[in-house]
Backbone:
C-alpha cells in the first residue's frame, strides 16, 4: 500500500448536522486509480463522508464540515475553492438513477456544455459517443440518442448517469450505492464497468452490499457511528478483519 | 463471539461444526481401536473397524454437502468463511486418517511376530503419542484453542524421531531373524501409517490455527 | 372470539363500508344534479339569444326619397335618411291602417333598421330606384314572440305589444316573410339599450385585453417570485413571513384588490378609469399568489435527485434550477397559471370598483379604451327589465362557461403533453 500514490486524503474530518456530529476525526488516504469501498451500517456516516469529497454537503444549510480534505495535495475544504470546478474534477453517481428530463444526447452533453468543453457540434458528438462507449451503453442507445433518458431501463439509466459523470473528464468518481435500485444483471454490468473505469479514474463507492464491496474494490473502509474503524485491503477485511465490530458487521452478527 | 442475526445461519454453522467433531471422534476411536486390534490380534474388532470406515466416508460426504450449501446460500464472510472452508479441509484429512486406520488392521493378519518383543515396543509408544496428538488436535478444534493447536503442531517432530528410531530397531531385528522379514515389512507400513496419521493431525492443526487466527502458522513445519 | 362473533363483526365492517360508499355516491349525485339544473336553466334561457328574428321587407330605394343619386359618395349615403323608405315599406304591410296604428307599425322593427338598410345599400348600389327584398331586424318584443317566450293570451294592456302588431306578425309569418338566423351581431356588437342589437363584443374584447395585461404581468412576476422563494431564498424569519403572506394573499376577498386598484392606480397614478389596463393590473395582483403557490408546489415536487445530479456535474445553482428544475415544474405551473387566469376571467367585484361597470357602446380596440368584461356584462344585463336581456344574460354566461371550459381543457392538455414526454 505504501508505494501507491495517494489521491485523496482527509485529516481529522469532523462533520456536524446542526448539533449532531455525523463524522468523528476521520483520517483516510485513498489511492489513485483504485476502487475504495466504504461499508457500514445505515447512518454510520459513509455517505456523509463521500459527499464531503465533492462538497455536496454545502447544499445542506445546517451542515458544517471541519478538518482537512486534500485532493492531489490541494486543500478543498476552504471558502475560496470554487465548488463548480471542484465538481468538474470529482464526479458523483447517486443511489437512484437520476437522468435529466432531456434526451439521452442532451443528458451527456449537459456537462460539457456548461463547462465549455466542446468548441463545436462535432466535438460534442465526439464527447457524447466516447462517454457512452466508456459507460458500455453506446451500442444499446446509439440509434435513439434523441429519445428521453428517462425511457431507459433502471440499469441503463444508471450507466447513462455514469456516462454523464465521465463526460466532463473527472479524476475521481464518487458512487453512492449505485446499484441498490438495480437487478443482479444490471448490477453485474455496473460492476464490470467499475472494473474498467478504475484504469482511468479513482473511484470511491459506498455500498450496503458486502459482496459487492468485496467484488469491486481493492481497499475497504468500515464506518461505524461516524468513525472509521478499519481501513485495509479488501481481501484482508473480508477474510480476516482486525476489528471485532468489522467482523460482526460483515458476517451478519451486528445487533 | 456473538450470535448471527439470522438464527438458521447460526444453526447451520453449529451443525457443521458438530458434524466435524463427530467425524473426528469416530476417526479417533477407529485409530485407537486399530492399535488395540493390532496388539491383541482381535478378529472381531478388525471386522468392526473395517465396517465402520463406510460411516466415515458418509460423514465426509455430509460435511461436503453442508459446506457447499453454506457457500451457495449464505456466502459466508470472514470467520464464517474460514469456519466453512476449514471444515471441508479437516473432513478430508479425517477421512485419510480413517483410511489409514483401516489399512493398519488389514495388515494385522500378516504380522506373525510377538509385539511384546522390546524391539517392537516403539510402535506402541509412537501410536500413543499420535493418539494423544490427534485427541489434542480435535480438542483444539472443538474449543477453538489456537495455542493447543500450535503445541501439537510443534510436537510432531517427536513422533518423527521415534519413527526413525523404530525403523532402526526393525532393521536390526530383520538382520537377526530372517523369518521375521515378511511380518516386519507389514509392520513397517503400519508404523508409516501411524506417522502419516500424525502428519494429518498436524495438517488439521494448521487449519484450526487458520480458522482462528485467519493466517497460516509462521515458519516451516519442524521435521525430525 | 368465536365464529359467530366473528361473523357479526365482519358483517358490521361490511355494512359500514357499504354505508360510506352510499354517502359518497349520493353526495356526488346531489352535486351533479345542482350543476345540471344550473346548466339546463342557463341553456334553456340563453340558447335562443344566439338566433335573431328578421322580417323581409320590400324596400323601394327611391332616389328622391333618399336624397341621393348614383354618383353619391359613401359619406353622403351614410348621411342620407333611410327612414322614409322604411316607413313606406312598413306602411305597405297594412295599407288601410288608421293613423294611430301607423306608429305601432313603425315599432315592429328595431331602431337600428335604417342602419341595416344603409349597409345593404352600400353593398348593393345597383338597387337604386328599384325595389328589393331586405331582411330587417324585428324589435325585441316581436323577436320574443317569435321565439315563443311571450304568452299571447294575456290581456293586451298588460303586454308590450298590441293586438294589431300581433296580427301583422301573424300575417307576415304565414307568408314566410319572418326568418331566423344566427345572431352574429350578439357576438360582435357592443352593448346597447335595445336588446335586439345589444352584443357582447365589447365585453369580449375587454375580457381579452384584461386577461392579456393580467397574464403579461402576473406570469413572469409570479414565476420569478416562486423560483426565488423556493430555490434561492435563505430559510429565515423574513422568508417565512413572506411565505405566510403569500398564502394569505390568495385568500383575500377579491373586492379588496378592487379597492386597492381604485386607491392606487386610479386615485394615485391617475390611470384611465374603466380600462382593461387597470382591470388587468388589479386582476394580476389577485392572480399573483394563485400562480406563486402552484408554481412553488410544482418546484417542490421536482425530485431532489435531479438537483443533486446537476450540482454534482458542477452546474451552478442558477444553471441547475433553470436547466433542469424549472422545465420539470412547468406543467404544474402552467396549469396553475391557467386556473388562476380563469378565476380572473370570472371575477366581477374588483372590476366594479375601478369603473369597468360603465355602459360602453363602442367595441374597445386597445387596453386603454374604456370597456366592460363578460362577468360585468352579465351583472349589467341581469338588472335590465326587458325580456330580451334575460336571454342575453344567460347567453353571456354560456359564452363565459365556454371560455372557462376551454381554458381548463387547455391546462389539462398542457399538463398531459409535458408530462407524457418525460416519464
Residues:
Amino acid at each position: 500500500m505504501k508505494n501507491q500514490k495517494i489521491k485523496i486524503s482527509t485529516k481529522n474530518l469532523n462533520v456536524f448536522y446542526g448539533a449532531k456530529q455525523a463524522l468523528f476525526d476521520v483520517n483516510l488516504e485513498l489511492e489513485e486509480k483504485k476502487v475504495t469501498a466504504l461499508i457500514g451500517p445505515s447512518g454510520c456516516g459513509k455517505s456523509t463522508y463521500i459527499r464531503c469529497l465533492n462538497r455536496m454537503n454545502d447544499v445542506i444549510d445546517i451542515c458544517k464540515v471541519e478538518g482537512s480534505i486534500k485532493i492531489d495535495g490541494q486543500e478543498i475544504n476552504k471558502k475560496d475553492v470554487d465548488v463548480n470546478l471542484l465538481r468538474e474534477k470529482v464526479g458523483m453517481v447517486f443511489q437512484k438513477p437520476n437522468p435529466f428530463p432531456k434526451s439521452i444526447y442532451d443528458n451527456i452533453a449537459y456537462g460539457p456544455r456548461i463547462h465549455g468543453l466542446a468548441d463545436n457540434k462535432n466535438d460534442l458528438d465526439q464527447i457524447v459517443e466516447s462517454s457512452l462507449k466508456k459507460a458500455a451503453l453506446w451500442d444499446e442507445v446509439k440509434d435513439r440518442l434523441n429519445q428521453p433518458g428517462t425511457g431507459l431501463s433502471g440499469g441503463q439509466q444508471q450507466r447513462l448517469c455514469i456516462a454523464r459523470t465521465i463526460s466532463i473528464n473527472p479524476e475521481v468518481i464518487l458512487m453512492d450505492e449505485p446499484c441498490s435500485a438495480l437487478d443482479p444483471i444490471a448490477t453485474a454490468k455496473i460492476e464490470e464497468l467499475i472494473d474498467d473505469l478504475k484504469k482511468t479514474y479513482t473511484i470511491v463507492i459506498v455500498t450496503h452490499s458486502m459482496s459487492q464491496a468485496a467484488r469491486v474494490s481493492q481497499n475497504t473502509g468500515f464506518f461505524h457511528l461516524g468513525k472509521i474503524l478499519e481501513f485495509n485491503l479488501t481481501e484482508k477485511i473480508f477474510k480476516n478483519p482486525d476489528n471485532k465490530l468489522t467482523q460482526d458487521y460483515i458476517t451478519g452478527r451486528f445487533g | 463471539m456473538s450470535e448471527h442475526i439470522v438464527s438458521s445461519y447460526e444453526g447451520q454453522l453449529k451443525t457443521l461444526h458438530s458434524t466435524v467433531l463427530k467425524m473426528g471422534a469416530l476417526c479417533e476411536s477407529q485409530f485407537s481401536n486399530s492399535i488395540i486390534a493390532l496388539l491383541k490380534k482381535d478378529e472381531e474388532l478388525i471386522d468392526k473397524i473395517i465396517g465402520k470406515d463406510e460411516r466415515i466416508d458418509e460423514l465426509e460426504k455430509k460435511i461436503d454437502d453442508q459446506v457447499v450449501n453454506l457457500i451457495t446460500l449464505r456466502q459466508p464472510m470472514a470467520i464464517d468463511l474460514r469456519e466453512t472452508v476449514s471444515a471441508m479441509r479437516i473432513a478430508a484429512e479425517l477421512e485419510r486418517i480413517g483410511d489409514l486406520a483401516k489399512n493398519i488392521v488389514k495388515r494385522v493378519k500378516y504380522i506373525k511376530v510377538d509385539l511384546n518383543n522390546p524391539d517392537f515396543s516403539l510402535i506402541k509408544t509412537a501410536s500413543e503419542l499420535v493418539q494423544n496428538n490427534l485427541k489434542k488436535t480435535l480438542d483444539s478444534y472443538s474449543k477453538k484453542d489456537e495455542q493447543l493447536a500450535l503445541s501439537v503442531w510443534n510436537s510432531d517432530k517427536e513422533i518423527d524421531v521415534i519413527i526413525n528410531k523404530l525403523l532402526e530397531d526393525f532393521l536390526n531385528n530383520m538382520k537377526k531373524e530372517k523369518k521375521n522379514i515378511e511380518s516386519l515389512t507389514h509392520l513397517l507400513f503400519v508404523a508409516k501409517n501411524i506417522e502419516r496419521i500424525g502428519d494429518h493431525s498436524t495438517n488439521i492443526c494448521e487449519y484450526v490455527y487458520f480458522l482462528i487466527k485467519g493466517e497460516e502458522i509462521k515458519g516451516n513445519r519442524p521435521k525430525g | 372470539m368465536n365464529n359467530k362473533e366473528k361473523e357479526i363483526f365482519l358483517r358490521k365492517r361490511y355494512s359500514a363500508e357499504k354505508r360510506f360508499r352510499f354517502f359518497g355516491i349520493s353526495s356526488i349525485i346531489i352535486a351533479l344534479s345542482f350543476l345540471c339544473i344550473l346548466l339546463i336553466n342557463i341553456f334553456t334561457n340563453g340558447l335562443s339569444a344566439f338566433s335573431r328574428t328578421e322580417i323581409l321587407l320590400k324596400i323601394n330605394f327611391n332616389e328622391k326619397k333618399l336624397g341621393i343619386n348614383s354618383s353619391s359618395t359613401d359619406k353622403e349615403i351614410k348621411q342620407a335618411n333611410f327612414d322614409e323608405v322604411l316607413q313606406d315599406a312598413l306602411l305597405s304591410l297594412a295599407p288601410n291602417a288608421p293613423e294611430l296604428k301607423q306608429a305601432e307599425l313603425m315599432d315592429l322593427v328595431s331602431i337600428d333598421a335604417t342602419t341595416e338598410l344603409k349597409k345593404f345599400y352600400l353593398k348593393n348600389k345597383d338597387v337604386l330606384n328599384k325595389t328589393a327584398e331586405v331582411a330587417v331586424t324585428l324589435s325585441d318584443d316581436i323577436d320574443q314572440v317569435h321565439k315563443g317566450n311571450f304568452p299571447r293570451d294575456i290581456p293586451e294592456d298588460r303586454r308590450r305589444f298590441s293586438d294589431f302588431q300581433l296580427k301583422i306578425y301573424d300575417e307576415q309569418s304565414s307568408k314566410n316573410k319572418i326568418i331566423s338566423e344566427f345572431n352574429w351581431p350578439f357576438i360582435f356588437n357592443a352593448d346597447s339599450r335595445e336588446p335586439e342589437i345589444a352584443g357582447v363584443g365589447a365585453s369580449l374584447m375587454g375580457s381579452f385585453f384584461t386577461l392579456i395585461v393580467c397574464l403579461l404581468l402576473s406570469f413572469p412576476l409570479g414565476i420569478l417570485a416562486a423560483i426565488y422563494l423556493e430555490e434561492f431564498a435563505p430559510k429565515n424569519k423574513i422568508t417565512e413571513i413572506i411565505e405566510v403572506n403569500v398564502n394569505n394573499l390568495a385568500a383575500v376577498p377579491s373586492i379588496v384588490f378592487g379597492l386597492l386598484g381604485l386607491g392606487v392606480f386610479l386615485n394615485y397614478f391617475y390611470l384611465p378609469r374603466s380600462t382593461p389596463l387597470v382591470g388587468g393590473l388589479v386582476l394580476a395582483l389577485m392572480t399573483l399568489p394563485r400562480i406563486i403557490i402552484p408554481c412553488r408546489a410544482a418546484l417542490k415536487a421536482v425530485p431532489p435527485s435531479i438537483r443533486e445530479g446537476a450540482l454534482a456535474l458542477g452546474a451552478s445553482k442558477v444553471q441547475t434550477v433553470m436547466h433542469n428544475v424549472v422545465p420539470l415544474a412547468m406543467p404544474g405551473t402552467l396549469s396553475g397559471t391557467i386556473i388562476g387566469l380563469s378565476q380572473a376571467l370570472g371575477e366581477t367585484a374588483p372590476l366594479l370598483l375601478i369603473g369597468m361597470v360603465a355602459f360602453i357602446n363602442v367595441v374597445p380596440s386597445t387596453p386603454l379604451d374604456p370597456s366592460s368584461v363578460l362577468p360585468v356584462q352579465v351583472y349589467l344585463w341581469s338588472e335590465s327589465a326587458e325580456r330580451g336581456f334575460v336571454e342575453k344574460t344567460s347567453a353571456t354566461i354560456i359564452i363565459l362557461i365556454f371560455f372557462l371550459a376551454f381554458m381548463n381543457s387547455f391546462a389539462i392538455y398542457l399538463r398531459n403533453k409535458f408530462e407524457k414526454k418525460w416519464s
Summary: Residues 3-46 of chain C form the longest helix (44 residues). Chain C has a mean pLDDT of 88. The CA atoms of residues 382 and 393 of chain C lie 6 Å apart.
